[in-house]
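Notebook entry, structure prediction.
Reason for the run: the old model in the group folder had no record of what sequence produced it. Starting over properly, with the input documented here first.
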Amino acid sequence: MSRHNWIIGARPAWPQSGLAVRAPGNTLGVLALLLCLVAISLVGCATFEIETPDEMVAVEESNREYVAMTHDGVVLRVLVHSQGEGVNDVPRAGHDFWVESVRERMRTRGGYALLEEREVQSVDGHRGTRMEFGRDQDGVPYQYWMVLFVTEDNIHVIDAGGRQDRLEGARDALERALSSYEVKR
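New structure, fully documented this time:
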């Protein structure tokens, strides 16, 4: 049977598989241009920067999400949500609105008590709010920290949580990570 399924720029799936490479006249020049474009696009996509403390390991990193954890389960996470009119965007609102929303949601839906709240600043000068919550679960106390930075286009949510005794053991590492946070956009 001589029938082949062709995809643009690919070889037939049968009898061989793999991509067909058609070299333009200046292959190295085109490759260099593509690598430059990729590098520029990656730099432009970064929405934040955070340093992973030595006591933690980063388990997920992207331009809008970051997760690190300690050996005993304390988790540090960053999520950056777009504000706007897009399908996946959250509605545009100011810093105070989002802080009040988090306070209310943590109390009514999570059963957490607000233990402390204070103003913070990112390493690059953005104003934010840090909230520390607590609750008991099956007789074991847990703590949950949340820091919000709101820009015109994004909401930066940095949270950390775990059993209270373990979170206290990781406090210095978490504080170092939070103090390194930079809002890129």
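Summary: The two ends are 56 Å apart (CA to CA).
The old model has been moved to the deprecated folder.
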